[in-house]
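Structure (tokenized):
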């Protein structure tokens, strides 16, 4: 009888052990998920509270941030409101031709040509020349922004300001470029961008992408206009490629380390590696590091990830 009783109780013991293991596995999975979500929140908070406010006003003075600019009233209460500026050693009339000819399939945007110009029919490089055929846009003319997006010209005052508007009605965004002379030989180029998120899923996703990419793109455009107006050589495609590759490698490292949080036994180490990759990506995108310093960093971090993987 005792043997029979023992046989009857063994399945219950096995069932209790299985339940305990399942509970432990579920708790472990939940802890990992919560930890990864906490990392996303921490990185998002760093962006929202420290990086974004500085990038929204890159290069601009308090007076430039607070001053009224053309088209401010078109988007009275924007979700995104950025004023940025750069000093150019040239007169407004010398800068204006470079500014007014910008556009996809036109002169380019003088920024990251490898991202902005493919498929434009005018070559991968933004022009280094004044193009007479693009010097006289009129309000209402279309302005191609990419293969998928088109703006229209708003108010234009030559040698003073130019406004780009969203093509929807009423426009959801306004992009202002204004030239303000400092003295006889120097000018401030001020960029102001004000827009709201749209409700359709595709346009909302585009707005989210623009939220993070705009800081990088506009900074490069301002420098590109400055370099051409001052006669400096633009950034080489090789340098652009190194910088862009560094961004994508850091992003890939963050994704891979994030997956390791859910698959490694030592998930805490994986969490730290993912945090480091996320911080590295933000550093490369927004800190404006010189290429010779910033581009090698993801390669060095890749070596750290590879070593950690071998030891895991």
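Design, position by position:
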């Amino acid at each position: 009888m005792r043997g029979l009783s023992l046989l009857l109780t063994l399945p219950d013991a096995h069932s209790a052990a299985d339940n305990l293991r399942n509970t432990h596995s579920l708790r472990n999975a939940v802890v990992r998920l919560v930890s990864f979500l906490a990392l996303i929140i921490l990185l998002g908070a760093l962006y929202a509270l420290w990086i974004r406010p500085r990038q929204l006003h890159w290069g601009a003075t308090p007076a430039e941030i607070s001053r009224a600019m053309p088209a401010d009233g078109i988007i009275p209460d924007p979700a995104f409101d950025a004023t940025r500026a750069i000093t150019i050693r040239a007169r407004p009339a010398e800068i204006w031709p470079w500014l007014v000819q910008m556009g996809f399939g036109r002169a380019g945007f003088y920024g990251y040509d490898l991202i902005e110009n493919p498929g434009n029919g005018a070559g991968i490089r933004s022009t280094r020349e004044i193009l007479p055929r693009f010097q006289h846009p009129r309000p209402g003319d279309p302005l191609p922004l990419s293969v998928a997006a088109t703006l229209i010209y708003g108010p234009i005052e030559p040698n003073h300001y130019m406004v780009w508007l969203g093509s929807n009605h009423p426009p959801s965004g306004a992009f202002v470029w204004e030239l303000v002379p400092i003295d006889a030989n120097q000018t401030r180029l001020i960029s102001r961008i004000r827009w709201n998120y749209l409700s359709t899923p595709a346009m909302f996703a585009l707005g989210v992408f623009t939220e993070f990419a705009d800081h990088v793109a506009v900074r490069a455009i301002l420098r590109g206009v400055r370099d051409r107006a001052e006669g400096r050589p633009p950034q080489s495609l090789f340098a652009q490629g190194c910088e862009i590759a560094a961004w994508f490698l850091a992003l890939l490292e963050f994704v891979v380390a994030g997956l390791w949080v859910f698959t490694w036994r030592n998930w805490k180490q994986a969490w730290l590696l993912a945090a480091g990759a996320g911080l590295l990506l933000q550093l490369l995108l927004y800190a404006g590091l010189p290429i010779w310093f910033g581009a090698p960093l993801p390669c060095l971090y890749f070596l750290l990830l590879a070593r950690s993987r071998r030891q895991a």
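Reviewer-requested clarification: The chain has nine helices and six strands. The chain has a mean pLDDT of 90.
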